[in-house]
Amino acid sequence: MMGIHRQVAVQWQQASGGDWAAYAADVAALARQELGGAVRGKRITVWGAAFKPNTDDIRDSPALAVAQKLHELGATVTDPQALDNARKQHPELNYVDDPIAAVQDADLLLHLTEWPQYSHIDPHRLAARTASPKVIDGRGTLNADTWREAGWTVRALGRP
Q: What is the DSSP string of 32-73?
């Protein structure tokens, strides 16, 4: 059974007709808000180019739409998955093959996938690597309380 946040995401996609540009604009707006109004010059890590767990499938990837939008707004964007496929389609983005290394000096982390390994990464371990421990959970799969206890500011689409 899908969790409530996944249901919201599915309903949003159905209502919008899969308009990933609108989704990217929504996530980018939330990112700007978290970063004090602008993303230009900020380092943002996106977990989720390959949004289908355990694949390198980037077809219609909402995370890549978000990454591209943030890049267009002047952010430096890094993603740790789907390296070859994503690199071919979006060579302007940065790629690191390790999700923990990808957050090094990041001003913001965007969690935009349902890959289970991301939900199990220790947020305490990550917090020390970032420039600012801020995360936007775009899939509702992180334990927000655990992340907050580790010092993170946690935001999500459709939640305060």
A: HHHTTT--TT-EEEEE-SS-STTS---TT-HHHHHHHHHHHT
